[in-house]
Specification:
Blueprint: H1 5-9, H2 20-35, H3 45-65, H4 81-94, E1 103-106, E2 115-126, E3 132-142, E4 145-153, E5 158-160
Helix pairs in contact: 2-3
Length: about 170
């Protein structure tokens, strides 16, 4: 018996909203993930709600596709894993350009220099087409002084870090 193309892509079952049990499991899993965050790590309620919605969607999709079998049950994630993902989410949702003295993560074309820095200098000028162009200089604190180490960095290469991000990691 051959299958038509349409039959091959149609779902086997009709779509169904998340069940109460799936939602409870996803909420419990998200609470477990949040418990791994440092108490100093805070983010706005809107960001937390977005993170929770995305997490729960992924969790329920995993349950329904059979990919959430508890093979590593009761084994916590490594330190920093959850914080790194949440920090990236906070930066992506912020939508505000980095400002002078802010902590940022650089992930631009100089892959050997990826990491966390301070915004040490901001230069804004008009391009030949009359559009504003902004470039950043990024710095590291050495011997108590902020030293610029990367110049002419584009905003697309930066992720702002939350205000209460641990300053000792820079």
């Amino acid at each position: 018996m051959s299958m038509t193309r349409l039959e091959a892509i149609e779902p086997k079952y009709p779509a169904a909203s998340p069940s109460e049990g799936e939602e409870e499991q996803a909420e419990a899993a998200f609470a477990s993930v949040l418990a791994q965050l440092s108490p100093r790590f805070g983010f706005r309620r809107e960001v937390r709600e977005l993170a929770q919605a995305l997490f729960e969607l992924g969790w329920i999709a995993g349950v329904r596709t059979g990919h959430t079998w508890p093979s590593l049950m009761n084994v916590p994630l490594p330190d920093g894993t959850v914080q790194e993902v949440m920090r990236d989410l906070v930066g992506a949702v912020a939508g505000v350009p980095p400002r002078l003295g802010q902590k940022v993560r650089y992930e631009g074309s100089m892959t050997g220099r990826h990491g966390n820095y301070w915004i040490a200098h901001i230069e804004a000028r008009l391009s030949l087409s009359g559009r504003p162009k902004v470039h950043y200089s990024l710095g590291e604190v050495r011997n108590g002084l902020l030293r610029p180490v990367l110049h002419n960095v584009h905003a697309e290469s930066l992720t702002p870090l939350p205000e209460d991000f641990d300053r000792d990691t820079l």
